[in-house]
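From the pipeline queue, job 12 of 40. The input is one protein chain; the requested action is below.

Action: predict structure.
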Amino acid sequence: MGRHSLPDGSAPRRTGSRPGARRRTLVVSTSLALAVGAGSVVALRGDLLPFGDPCGDTSVRLDVAASPDIAPALSAVAETAREDATRTDGRCLDVKVTARPSHEMADSFAQRPVDPEFQVWIPDSQLWVDRVDAESGTPLTAADGIASSPIALGAVPKTAKALGWPKQSYTWTELARKATSGDALRLGVADPARSATGLLALARIHAADTTEAKDDDEAEVRTAATAKLLAQRVADGDGQILATLPGDDSGAEQGNPRRNQALLLSEQAAYAHNTRDDGGPGLKLFYPKGGTAQLTYPYTLVDDGALSPEQTRAANRFMTLLGEPGGQRTLRAHGFRPGNGTAVAKVADTAGGRAAQPYSVTPADQPTAKELRALLGMWTITVQSARISTVVDASASMGSPVPGRDGRSRMDLARNSLLQALATFTPEDEIGLWKFATLLDGGKDYVELSPTRRLGDRDEDGATHRDALAAAFGSLAPVPHGATGLYDTTLAAYRSARATYASGKFNAVVVVTDGANDDAAGISLSALVGELEKLSSPDRPVPLIALAIGPEADESALDRIVAPTGGSAHRVSDPSQIHRVILKAIMAAGGTGRR
């Protein structure tokens, strides 16, 4: 894509929406086109164009919630519309723009019913709209983005020079490696759980890791390691991360270990920082090679079925103003690119971009909602740590040999895989182990082999809990004549996990089983599901993750068991892959938790 600025008198070229958003875009575009058609007829026949009589008391109010970075530009367009007496339905257009963080609005819209305080929402990324859709929240109808801004790495001048700016360019993995190796560079990022910038940057790092790694396992390990390092200097949101930069060029500020020397941020955020009188040293931008992620600002109707015809036409009128040359000039003056992502040389220059930085390269494809959920789960367990009770089937059938595995049993492979999973957790994580089979401990079907404790804790002899847990995993063996006491064990383990819930950590129960419940004297499936429904709470979430190995495992029962807890059930054809399935399931569960 060429490097150029849009002429002041030209309208931006609109592009098609992403495949996943095409249906919604078609709906909103069609309804709004019909509305503007009807409104235009009224305006022409009634001489109600902007140069008509003053508004007086007649106006149509439109309440817009917008991401804080774009809210000032939208307010400027709204103010111009008021000054020009811009009309809709023969009445003046009165738009009130309220700045609200996108993650807060997404959380609000995901919880229905929601008070229809706003008719239009302009978040900084389509990912927030997709999140609300995935949770079947307030109906949202998104059109194409009204603006865009790529994500890059911004560095203070001294650090930028040391990194070779502007001639030296980097891939995402090279940037991540450079920024997280040793103490040479203090790199800050906004929390990916609350910031589209942070999450999309992490997605580009993971995409690059996937391309360069030999397999998915290595890619996940690389990305998790980078996430762990980034988490050390994370800020709650985009506004807070900018406040971590040095306040001036003094040695005290530049050398302050609490100050960041570089940030992952949007081009527009760098533009805003560099144009402030009191913003501190200007940032220089590194645009990663191979395409960057970008913020897209979709124009979104909130529960359009509940809007009045006047509100719908007012929403259309405001969207039209934002796409017209005047609206686009205002957006550019605030550091935004047009919605199609075309580079604007003046914006990039002010933000700190220079040749040979590839600031005009076409942005990379946006990650899917599924990919983002997995990454958010990875981030969650990285920054929160985990408290996980592992419950393993020790019935006689676990001794069955696995075809093609040189006579090794299900238990042999499961045990080794669980030990591999254990190696991925940090000393701050809390892990415990239960095993179960019918009548294993008197009248009980289960026994705790190792309590759920912090892996770094040490006993009187100096051994860590990790050492003790590894020994407990190693001791797992099938119980002769033991059957599958699944239901009683699951209820007992879940009650224990709820009673010992650790705030600030990712809490979960993982059950590994190769058979259907075989304890006729125990609780029934329906009664178990009912008890889990009573125990589960969104305020203290403990997802239940079930892994079914072997052909005798009852997947339909497991699906019913995990549902009330917000967990998931998985068929594992190869017990040696249990560790991979556990980690992916934990990441997925972490990515759906309310924050």
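Job complete. DSSP finds 21 helices and 18 strands in the chain.
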